[in-house]
């Protein structure tokens, strides 16, 4: 029994997923190694993916662009059902997990943008009033990291 060209196949090869998603095969292997997506092996030891992997890869790509860590993406994707293609309610549940984190990121980015306005505008001519000024490296005693730009 041959494949009907009008009906999409239920499973995709890694090359087909790469072509359809715009993600390199090496990235798909990486996502799989990190537990973000899953495949099974054929008798010839070739990877096969369910069609729902295309939506999952799309979510991964968008989340990465937003700066969501891979571990957070993996945890969210684990809330989706394995035995069936996720429906609208499943995706809504996933997005609710990210809403608070994304709102916090937006607040931090807005704060960063607003605090950098003066620096970008002054051209570093007002060292005494610069919000990033750290005379005598006083903030070094507070530990590593950008304390003034990222107080949280």
UniProtKB/TrEMBL annotation:
The keyword Iron-sulfur applies. Gene3D superfamilies: 1.10.1660.10. Residues 11-79 form the HTH merR-type domain. The keyword Cell membrane does not apply. It holds the Pfam family MerR. Keywords: 2Fe-2S, DNA-binding, Iron, Iron-sulfur, Metal-binding, Transcription, Transcription regulation. InterPro entries: DNA-bd_dom_put_sf (IPR009061), MerR-type_HTH_dom (IPR000551), MerR_fam (IPR047057), Redox-sen_tscrpt-act_SoxR (IPR010211), Tscrpt_reg_MerR_DNA-bd (IPR015358). This is Redox-sensitive transcriptional activator SoxR. It comes from Chelativorans salis. The gene is soxR.
């Amino acid at each position: 029994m041959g494949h009907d060209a009008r009906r999409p196949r239920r499973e995709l090869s890694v090359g087909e997923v790469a072509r359809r998603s715009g993600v390199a095969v090496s990235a798909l292997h990486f996502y799989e190694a990190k537990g973000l997506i899953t495949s099974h092996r054929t008798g010839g030891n070739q990877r096969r993916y369910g069609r729902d992997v295309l939506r999952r890869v799309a979510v991964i790509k968008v989340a990465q662009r937003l700066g969501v860590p891979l571990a957070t993406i993996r945890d969210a994707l684990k809330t989706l059902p394995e035995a069936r293609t996720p429906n609208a309610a499943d995706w809504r549940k996933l997005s609710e997990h990210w809403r608070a984190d994304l709102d916090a990121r937006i607040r931090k980015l807005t704060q960063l943008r607003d605090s950098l306005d003066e620096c970008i505008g002054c051209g570093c001519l007002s060292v005494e009033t610069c919000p990033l000024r750290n005379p005598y490296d006083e903030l070094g005693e507070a530990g590593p990291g950008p304390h003034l730009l990222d107080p949280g």
